[in-house]
Each structure stands twice: as structure tokens, then as C-alpha cells.
Design brief:
alpha/beta; six-stranded mixed beta sheet; three-stranded antiparallel beta sheet; 18 helices; 13 strands; 13% strand
Length: 439
């Protein structure tokens, strides 16, 4: 899996013999040839690209006068609200799915995209989670990685050398040293708002239930397809996972009363945390770069990434994968589906679309024909370094049983933080629920 991910990312950033072919294919501009006006709705959950996506849509519509695209972005409870939209008859034309579990749940609404021109340029390994019976049902938005995002400047001023952090023990030592310097006021003059090592937004059950747990279950399950097919889990690295959660939550402002973290959201973590140097670290990914840079470019350029070490198992790697796929509603009208496909093809395969994907969305391309376009932000480049060194683990949470990661795992972590459940009780519940939801 490491080799596949390494290949797909490195291929996405080099010149290929198909680059010219992609340009010719995208010149078949169905939107411009549309005689009758058509309106489509795009519903997506990545709030960090909401403004950039709005701008991209405006650009597209300026060149396709007969196409109107209504963008709706919602990062909270996306799956639930998508279901409600479908049931109420307010069905979006384009929406997001995340992998095998979502493909199974939404198969009755997914348009077959196997004939789309971007297919041949998709990097190796990026379409496996969106296939069924050898048909492709979604376009990969990009490739992302996550871990412990940290502020290089704060680390340096605290005398902490990130390159010496190789495992859980050295990470814990660094966190304790930084915590002591923050509490002593030693860093106050240069970082007046710095009040804790970590922020841990436990309100965001996608972050805890999906991303945090992936560090342990990735090693156990190996791939999202294996996760999807697994009727049970052992959770053999549950103790190591507990250490990762305890480290983050204990060195926050709410370390003495961790239940308060259940009301901390992503905005408090990113825009009101990392971006203003109120905290030095947080579990996040390269997707936060646009949000941080919009607040303080200098801070954004100081960010880099450390692994979330699974003690004694995998301690030097970061999780890397495709976060979501764009899909088209097969029950839309032919004109709507044509416009939807054309927009996606324009966004990912036209020259101006590629610029938007890399330089505005700050996505690492999931396609091989992006020529010399490379992510310029520090976080994406740091992730690329992990990929080049083959220090990655796969995302398996896209194969978790529907409802398990957020409604079960995420809520159980909240109970643990608030003291309403022991860790042993948490693991017992989530094991049972996995079996129940996998039937």
C-alpha cells in the first residue's frame, strides 16, 4: 500500500506523455454547447475549500453562460443532511462519497463515470475505493495526509528539535518540555497568545472517530476494502491508541477537565488555535493550509507535520489517502448530468482548473497529467517528503461500517474524555457495534 501511495503521488507531480491528450479531451466543451439553460446543485462537505470552490464555480459559469451551479457547503453532519436532501426531493446533482461503505449506501444514486476522459489520467490506486464491478463511480478530489501539525517557530524557540522526534517516547518528551516552557511564561513575550501545546477538537467526531482511530486500525486492517469486508475487529492496538488520545487531550487548556474538549470544534482548533499561535500543535492535515494562510500567511508557512506514533508498531509514518470523491446523481436529467460531468472535467483537467486545484484548493493532485504543477504550501510539501521516503500508512476509515466512526467511535471517545466510560468500556462497545453494523 505504501508503494502504491508513493507511486500515485509522485506520478501526480511529473510530466507524462498523456498531458496533451488531456487538453484535447477537455476541449470538448459540452457546457458551452448547451443551448438550453440548465441549473445544477453541488453539495459538498469540505468547508476549508468553500470560498475557493465558489470562486471556481463563478469562473466556470462566466465561460458557460447557460449553466448555473448552486454550491452548498456543509461540514457538519454531512451524511445525515445528504440523506435528508435525498428524501425531501432536494437532490443535489453533484455530491461527495468517501469510499466502499458510501458506495454501497449510495449505489442507487451513482452515475457510472467509467467513460469520462479523466479516468485514464487517474494515478494508480486512487480509484480502487470508488469502483464496483469494474465500473468507476467517482472522481478523486485529491490526495491528503495528516498527523500532528506543529509550529516550527515555536518548537525552535523552545529548543525542541523536530528531527529528533522519531517515536512516541521522544514525542511525549518534547510535548512535556514545551508544556513546561509555556507554563513558566518563557515563551510569552514572543507568543503572547500561546496557552497550550495541543488543541483537541473532540466535538468533531469525524476527526476522532475517523482520523485518530485510523492510526491503530490501519495497521490491523490494511486497507479500506479490508475494513469494509471485515465483520469484526480485534482492536489489537487499542492501548497504543489510548496513549495518542491521552497525550493530545492532557496537554490542552482543558487538560484538567477533558470533558470540556467535547465542545471544542474545528474552528477553535484551526482558525482560533494554530492560526493565531494559541496552540503549538493539533491533529490535522494539509487541508487546513488555506484556512490558516487566510488569517496569517507567516504562521501558515511555519507549519509542518509529525507522525502520530503507534508505540512499538508504526512510529515514523503518517496516514495518506483520498479523502472523498465527487459523484453525479444518476437520477438527474440528462442535461444536468452532462453539465455536472463537464464541470468536473473542467475543474480537474483544464489548464485553469488544474491551477485552481493545486494553487487555490491546495490539493495534492490525484492525476498524472499535472505536468510541473506542484503544491507550494509547506504542509503539502512535507507530506510529499513522507511519501517519497515511503513513510505512510493507508486510510482505512472509508471502509468502516456506516455510522460507526462518528456515531459510535467518536461519541464513545467523548464519553471517555468526560469520564463517563473507561477506555476498556469504550473498546468493548465499539467492537460490538462494529459487528452489529457489519451484518
Amino acid at each position: 500500500m505504501k508503494k502504491i501511495i508513493s507511486i500515485l503521488l509522485s506520478m501526480g507531480l511529473v510530466v507524462t506523455s498523456f498531458a496533451g491528450c488531456g487538453t484535447k479531451e477537455t476541449a470538448k466543451d459540452t457546457g458551452k454547447g448547451q443551448e438550453d439553460p440548465v441549473e445544477i446543485v453541488l453539495y459538498q462537505y469540505k468547508l476549508e475549500i468553500a470560498k475557493q470552490l465558489d470562486a471556481a464555480v463563478e469562473k466556470y459559469m462566466s465561460e458557460h453562460k447557460n449553466v448555473k451551479i448552486i454550491v452548498e457547503s456543509n461540514g457538519e453532519g454531512y451524511g445525515t443532511t445528504l440523506q435528508a436532501k435525498m428524501q425531501s426531493g432536494q437532490e443535489p446533482t453533484i455530491f461527495n462519497v468517501q469510499g466502499p461503505s458510501d458506495v454501497n449506501d449510495w449505489m442507487h444514486k451513482l452515475e457510472d463515470l467509467s467513460d469520462q476522459p479523466w479516468i485514464e489520467h487517474a494515478a494508480k490506486g486512487t480509484l480502487e475505493d470508488i469502483k464496483k464491478d469494474d465500473k468507476v463511480y467517482g472522481l478523486p478530489c485529491g490526495v491528503e495526509g495528516y498527523g500532528f501539525i506543529y509550529n516550527k517557530g515555536i518548537f525552535e524557540d523552545a529548543g525542541i528539535h523536530a528531527e529528533e522526534i522519531k517515536d512516541f517516547a521522544s514525542l511525549e518528551k518534547a510535548v512535556m518540555a514545551l508544556d513546561a516552557k509555556i507554563k513558566s511564561g518563557e515563551l510569552k513575550e514572543k507568543y503572547p497568545d500561546l496557552e497550550a501545546v495541543f488543541e483537541f477538537p473532540a466535538k468533531e467526531t469525524w476527526l476522532t472517530g475517523q482520523h485518530t482511530t485510523n492510526v491503530a486500525l490501519s495497521v490491523e486492517l490494511g486497507s479500506s476494502l479490508n475494513a469494509y469486508e471485515s465483520k469484526s475487529i480485534e482492536y489489537q492496538y487499542a492501548d497504543q491508541l489510548k496513549k495518542i488520545i491521552d497525550l493530545q487531550s492532557s496537554y490542552t487548556v482543558a487538560g484538567e477537565n477533558r470533558g470540556k474538549l467535547n465542545s471544542v470544534d474545528n474552528t477553535a482548533c484551526v482558525e482560533n488555535g494554530l492560526a493565531i499561535e494559541r496552540v503549538a500543535m493539533a491533529q490535522q492535515g494539509n487541508w487546513i493550509y488555506p484556512s490558516v494562510s487566510a488569517i496569517d500567511q507567516e504562521v501558515a508557512d511555519e507549519l509542518s507535520i509529525l507522525p502520530m506514533p503507534l508505540e512499538g508498531v508504526v512510529e515514523d509514518s503518517i496516514p495518506v489517502g483520498v479523502p472523498m470523491y465527487w459523484v453525479v446523481n444518476k437520477d438527474a436529467t440528462d442535461a444536468e448530468k452532462t453539465a455536472a460531468k463537464d464541470f468536473l472535467n473542467w475543474l480537474y483537467q483544464s489548464e485553469e482548473g488544474k491551477e485552481i486545484i493545486v494553487n487555490e484548493f491546495n490539493f495534492i493532485p490525484a492525476f498524472t497529467n499535472y505536468d510541473d504543477l506542484q503544491a507550494k504550501d509547506e504542509l503539502s510539501r512535507a507530506i510529499q517528503s513522507y511519501v517519497n521516503e515511503e513513510k505512510t500508512i493507508p486510510w482505512v476509515f472509508n471502509g468502516y461500517p456506516s455510522g460507526w466512526c462518528m456515531d459510535v467511535m467518536g461519541s464513545q471517545i467523548q464519553k471517555y474524555l468526560s469520564g463517563n466510560a473507561t477506555w476498556e468500556e469504550v473498546i468493548a462497545v465499539v467492537r460490538d457495534k462494529w459487528e452489529e453494523l457489519s451484518k
